Amino acid sequence: MTQPFPNYEELCEQIERDMRLPTPPVIALKILETIQSNQECMTKLVQIISADPALTAKMLRLANSSLYTLKVKVTSVERAVSILGTNLIKNIALSFVIANDLRENNDFCEFDYDYFWRRSVTSAVTGKLLSQLIGQKDDDIFVTALLHDIGVLIAYQTHRDRYASLLQKAGQENIALTELEIQEFGFDHQQIAFTLIRRWNLPDDFAWSVVHHHSPSLAPEELRDRTLVINMADQIAAIYTSSGNSEKIPEIRHQLAEHFKLRPHIITSFLDEAALKSIEILNSFEIEDGGMKPYSQLLQEANEELGRLNISYEQLVLELKEAKEKSEQLTEQLRSANVRLNTLVFTDGLTGLYNHRYFQQALGAALKQSDQEHIPLSLIIFDLDHFKNVNDTYGHPVGDLVLNNLAIMVKEFIRPNDILARYGGEEFAVILPNTDFAAVKLFSERLRECVENTETQHEGGAIRVTISIGATSYQPWEQKISQDLLIKTADRGLYASKNNGRNTFTALLP
């Protein structure tokens, strides 16, 4: 990598002289030394964390939070390490140790430490969620985002009066804080954080991402996306932790769409999740949430205020000029909120497929269409064979991986107008409009073969599964039947396939 900033060695030396850089907490040193030595790393890491009951309790609370969505409750450090991995547990522990140490070792009551750490933790949570949303696997993003503004804290602690005036001027005159810092000290808080992270022997990726988080385009190419995630997390955290920043929401939505190609309803859902999970995780850090509210609630409250004051919603919150633009944006927000709500109500949390509730509604609608248009309608219900053996042999996480892989494969296999749903457990259903009895039998056999030839790769190797299928078809010109009878007929076919040795299909007419 090239130099992170001009004359960085000289600047680092100057920062060392001019700033009181704190030493890393003792427990943090032990954790880092254990990871770096790589000798019985897991055992020693568990011992270090378990020796501190308060740290253990906080870490287990975070590991069991919705941020990590584990399928089983973690009750010990050993279990947490085995499920989440050594690197991730190391970062969770470091986050608590560093945040706790730097919160306790301060004596400047004028500085709002609660606000600083509330914004830092919100940045960390938002960074992790955004990293997951765009498909970046990055165990280090949480602690990196947590420390991205640590230079602000150090500068204030070292030069209290000088730095307080910089903060005030930046806020009043809308000047970039980094610009004022360079004028005053010759370096900015990003470079202070870079120096501290290098001094503490944290990974170089931490330092390089932090030093460019206000200008991600300057980061090394291999770290640019990561640095951009931290930049966006910082901007979103500012909205949720500072008053008067809601007018920046449209610009943030634009950046999320432009940089990460996210659709509007996905952005709305993500912004809500960032606030809700930040509130939860702040509790683990024993930090007040400061009345933080999800994005959708902010929109709702703004709309209520619009009615009370009889002025446009957009003038109040977003200060837009054209009434038409304001109305269109509000409509888009409401539409996105409805999409997000429907997604939550009708989507299976594990596979992302439609759930049982949606299946029942969709089948009722398909039956009605079949009667009105006099076209056939078919239904199949299939079940993974001996799936309990997969869970018992490889564990539930691998079982979940198999279910997800199956869902992806079948979704690609079916037609665009077919409806695939997770019926329950390892059972799935496919509604096939305009498909007669002969066609559903052909479809069932092809689906069976496709599943049989599909492998799920995991650390232990490859897993193949088979399915048993029950199929039926409704011909509206022959007889009228109920939705319940159609399901029962497919279900009887499924049980017949099970009794006939599995890995087969049975097609029955109602």
Describe the protein's architecture and organization:
The protein contains 24 helices and 7 strands. 63% of the residues lie in helices and 8% in strands. Residues 310-314 have low confidence and may be disordered. The strands form 2 sheets. A 5-stranded mixed beta sheet has the order 2-3-1-6-7, sandwiched between helices. The protein has helices at 8-18, 26-37, 41-50, 53-63, 77-84, 86-104, 113-133, 141-146, 150-158, 160-173, 177-185, 189-199, 204-211, 224-241, 249-260, 264-284, 295-309, 313-317, 323-346, 356-373, 387-394, 396-413, 437-452, 483-499, and strands at residues 377-384, 419-424, 427-433, 455-458, 461-464, 467-474, 505-508. It is elongated, with a radius of gyration of 28 Å. Helix 4 crosses helix 6 (86-104), helix 9 (150-158) packs across helix 12 (189-199) and helix 14 packs antiparallel against helix 15 (249-260). A hairpin with a 2-residue loop joins strand 2 and strand 3 (427-433). The protein has 510 residues and is an alpha+beta fold.
